[in-house]
Amino acid sequence: KINALYSKYKFMESSHLQRKKNLEGKIPDLKKTLDMVLYLISKENSDEDIITNYELNDTIYATAKIKPTKTVYLWLGVNVMLEYTTEEAKTLLEEKISTAEKSLNNIKEDLEFLRNQITTMEVNLARVYNWDVKQRRLKKKESSI
Predict the structure, then answer these.
(1) For residue 135, with 0-12 CB atoms within 10 Å meaning exposed, 13-18 middle and 19 or more buried, which class applies?
(2) Residue 45 domain-assigned?
(3) Total domain count for the chain?
(4) CATH number for the domain including 2?
(5) Which superkingdom heads the taxonomic lineage of this protein's source (predicted)?
(6) Which pLDDT score is estimated for 76?
(7) Which domain range does residue 25 map to?
(8) Half-sphere exposure of residue 64, counting CA atoms within 13 Å on the CB side?
(9) Residue 140 lies in a domain
(10) For residue 45, what pLDDT is reported?
(11) Which of 15, 130, 136, 140 has a CA 20 to 30 Å removed from the CA of 97?
(12) What is the pTM of this model?
């Protein structure tokens, strides 16, 4: 039973670590997108075009000339893109960042709890093993007498 519980805790820990890694990668992207939306909002009433570099890939950027706009397109994931006004996009991104940061904090707390439980289970496993070894020695000693 202890081994089964220990395995469950280890599985939960690896699952939480993966979620933590994903969120730690997602939050900076959301913040970068929010910064761009805020920049577009600041240039909405301007007559001059915005010249910017945008990311095509991790290491590839392209230059674009953007006319001042009141709408943006946001990737929602899995080949879904929707058009939002800049204010709606700002609100949506702020909510997503807030939710992601809360989730990250919850995951960190859960990981701390899991680590404590895993340590406790490891100590218990060692105690049970040592008790078993001691019992076998006693039986072996009794049977040899």
Answers:
(1) exposed
(2) yes
(3) 1
(4) 1.10.287.370
(5) Eukaryota
(6) 84
(7) 1-134
(8) 9
(9) no
(10) 86
(11) 15
(12) 0.77
